[in-house]
Amino acid sequence: MTAPSTAAAPSRRGRWIEQWDPEDETFWKETGEKTARRNLVLSVLAEHIGFSVWTLWSVLVLFMGPAYGLTPADKFLLTSMVTLVGAVVRVPYTFAVAVFGGRNWTVVSAGLLLVPTIAAFVVMRPGTSFSTFLWVGLLAGIGGGNFASSMTNINAFFPLRKKGWALGINAGGGNIGVPVIQLVALAIIGAGGGPRLLLALYIPLIVVAAVLAAVFMDNIASVRSDTGAARDAAKDAHTWIMAFLYIGTFGSFIGYSFAFGQVLQSEFGRTPLQAASLTFIGPLLGSLVRPVGGRLADRYGGARITLWNFAGMAAATAVLIVAGLEGELPLFIAVFVVLFVLSGLGNGSTYKMIPGIFQAKAVAKGLRGEEAAANGRRLSGAAMGLIGAVGALGGVAINLAFRQSFLSYGSGTGAFVAFLVFYGAAFAVTRAVYLRRPAAEATTAEVTPQPGYAQV
């Protein structure tokens, strides 16, 4: 069989691949893998900077001392709204890949990051009103959308057997934009610099990412606008079950990334420099371990890894409650870092589950081979946008929970109790839906193919 051509079609402007079949091992070895890896690297770069811009305000609020006139509640509200916008724009960003092409939308979405970065550079000074900070902060939320479009795009490039690793690398490389901007902020604070210097450093990086995407990335022609896929994914119960689980993994990661420094300042009295010197550790490790979660899911099944990951997150949260009540800062920081690591592992395993679930459902309906793979790609790509958006709303809930906890109790303990309950519920849902084998399954398995969810 002749390998599908990756030549750009003359009828289209830009870098378009007209035929793409990553499940064909001959095609994959000869041309597909090299092309997919090149797009993965550049996707990671653009998404990485998108995450940095999205989480800018988790760093900027550390610079905003008494002269800015903001209370801890104001800061938690500000970061909550930034997270909210990042969650909402993930839905249109997902479908933008099908409408404009993955490469084309990467160029546009990277360029759009200049808007919130330049706006923050202009207003970042004492005397600016809280409402102005809020509106400019909302602009930074568009950086959160880059994740959804990037994951949808990369999902189309890789075969099912490689998706856990590829999506883990893509997401982990993007997530690491959070600790990187925190580390850069630490260096600037330590050197006596201000927030405008931090913003000025990122403006040329955004331009570089957009230019590299324009020159070296590709669009896949077969990933066309498919509103039916979005509708079908929205109707499928597994989309919303996985969104619930993703709230617990990615929602925790992004919510804690925004809130960790503020908790250290508000509950333990750390200075901006002291807080900045600690906040990057958890997001850094959580980002680096995300591909490990995907790889473990490839080997052992995403459902199994996700189940025990939630058990670990619940245990870590219980210890955090005790550490907070006792005022044990070293224990609090150590366990918070563990919680970040577990959220990263869970990010990798849950995203591996998504294409596996829809592939298993296609097989259960009687589809085979490329037909099953194409059906799985179609629905999982659409579902990822919805799941990513709902999952990011978990970050909003975390910051609002901290805000209310500090207003009501003067500490984050009340919020951690709520998080503990949620992780317990996520554990129960994962086991009930994806690991428990109904007694009736043994008698029906020979008649009707059953989705092997334990292996997703």
Q: Keyphrases for this structure?
A:
Growth Hormone, Chain: A, 456 residues, mainly alpha, 79% helix, two-stranded parallel sheet
How would you briefly describe this protein structure?
By secondary structure, the chain is mostly helical. The protein has 21 helices and 2 strands. The chain has helices at residues 25-54, 56-63, 72-88, 90-100, 102-112, 114-123, 130-140, 145-157, 160-175, 177-190, 195-216, 227-235, 237-268, 272-279, 281-288, 290-300, 302-326, 329-364, 369-409, 413-435, 441-444, and strands at 16-17, 219-220.
Topology at a glance:
Elements: E1 16-17, H1 25-54, H2 56-63, H3 72-88, H4 90-100, H5 102-112, H6 114-123, H7 130-140, H8 145-157, H9 160-175, H10 177-190, H11 195-216, E2 219-220, H12 227-235, H13 237-268, H14 272-279, H15 281-288, H16 290-300, H17 302-326, H18 329-364, H19 369-409, H20 413-435, H21 441-444
Parallel strand pairs: 1-2
Protein model, in words:
There is one protein chain. The protein has one domain (17-455): Up-down Bundle (Growth Hormone, Chain: A). Strands 1-2 form a two-stranded parallel ribbon. It has 21 helices and 2 strands. By secondary structure, the protein is mainly α. The radius of gyration is 22 Å and the shape is globular. The chain has helices at residues 25-54, 56-63, 72-88, 90-100, 102-112, 114-123, 130-140, 145-157, 160-175, 177-190, 195-216, 227-235, 237-268, 272-279, 281-288, 290-300, 302-326, 329-364, 369-409, 413-435, 441-444; strands spanning 16-17, 219-220.
Poorly predicted sequence stretches spanning 5 or more consecutive residues: 1-11, 439-450
How many discrete structural domains?
1
On the 0 to 100 scale, the average pLDDT is 86
How many strands, what sense, and barrel or not for the largest sheet?
2 strands, parallel
Please name the fourth-level CATH homologous superfamily. MFS general substrate transporter like domains
Q: Tally the helices.
A: 21
**What is the string of helix and strand elements?**
EHHHHHHHHHHHEHHHHHHHHHH
Provide the β-strand percentage band. under 5%
CATH fold assignment: Growth Hormone, Chain: A
Question: What is the 3D form?
Answer: globular
Compute the number of strand runs. 2
What is the helix content?
over 70%
Structural class: mainly alpha
End-to-end CA span:
30 Å
CATH class group: Mainly Alpha
Rg (CA only): 22 Å
Please state the second-level CATH architecture. Answer: Up-down Bundle
Order of strands across the biggest sheet? 1-2
